[in-house]
Amino acid sequence: MNRGVPAVGTALVVGATGDIGRAVARRLGRDGWELQLAARDSQRLEAEAQDLRLRGVTVTTYDCDVLQEAGPLALIDALPAAPDVAVCTVGALGDQPHDEKDWRAAERVMRANYLGPALLMGALANRFEERGHGVLVGISSIAGERGRRSNYIYGSAKSGFTAFLSGLRSRLHRSGVCVVTVIPGYVRTRMTDHLELPALLTATPEDVADAIVVAIRKRRNVVYVGRVWRDVALVVRAIPESIFKRIPL
Predict the structure, then answer these.
(1) Which of 62, 114, 152, 154 is catalytic?
(2) Phi, psi of 248 (to 5 degrees)
(3) 114 is known as an active-site residue
(4) Nearest Cα to 184, choosing from 137, 148, 218, 226?
């Protein structure tokens, strides 16, 4: 069963105060979508919503903190109706040297990048499946393609999220529900401002938003933001473990 995706409708953006979330909301709003925005910082969220309303976009806002056990389900219960599209942009980079010595910090990174988003996507999937249509979009990372010593806590969480979305997509492929995995490489955001990123390989939040909009319209499965990253992923996965563990990545 495949009823397709409306040209415009209602879109939920979770993590809407982050740079990628803001870019996604603005792009969808510009295209005529009504927006349901969710984030844990209610003041910043309302400021973003007001800016969009001034641009003529219909917006409602909701509190959601995926770090809290009940956060994802509380958000879904608060929605008046399931959206046509849901985009989860939540994530946290963490600090690998610190987090590997502090299990609570490591847990926060894992919850922000995997457990919270996965529980949210899974609960939304059940609503979408009952209805028979919808698009779920989750943002993973090229870091999830293989564990590297420099960010394996973050990378392992993203890897888990990638696998979860893949399984969800397989489960729902005959239901009319599309599950999209978006895999960026480097993205210049507040989260990465302290890092020296290669300019030619670094995307903007707007680049990610554009890729998401195309993926929604074309009902794609996996989208790499920047063609080079698909090739990078293939090469990285092909390196034997005996060699990979010696590479200072």
Answers:
(1) 154
(2) -80, 75
(3) no
(4) 226
The Cα–Cα gap between 62 and 163 comes to: 28
- Identify the DSSP state of 115: I
Q: Tokens representing 161?
A: 């999220």
Model's pTM, two decimal places? Answer: 0.91
Residues in the chain: 249
d(CA 185, CA 167): 22
- Sequence spans of domains, the chain: 10-244
CA 154 to chain centre: 14
Instruction: Name the residue with tokens 């409306």.
Output: 6
| Per-residue model confidence as pLDDT tens digits over 100-118 | 999 999 999 999 999 999 9
Q: pLDDT tens for residues 188-211?
A: 666 666 767 666 677 789 999 999
And the tokens for 214?
């195309």
- Give me 35's structure tokens: 């927006």
Place of tokens 């392992």: 156
Which residues lie closer than 8 Å to 197 by C-beta, 6 or more apart? 186, 188
CATH code for residues 10-244: 3.40.50.720
In sequence order, the 6+-apart residues with CB closer than 8 A to the CB of 222 are 180, 181, 183
Rounded to whole angstroms, how far apart are CA atoms 221 and 182?
8
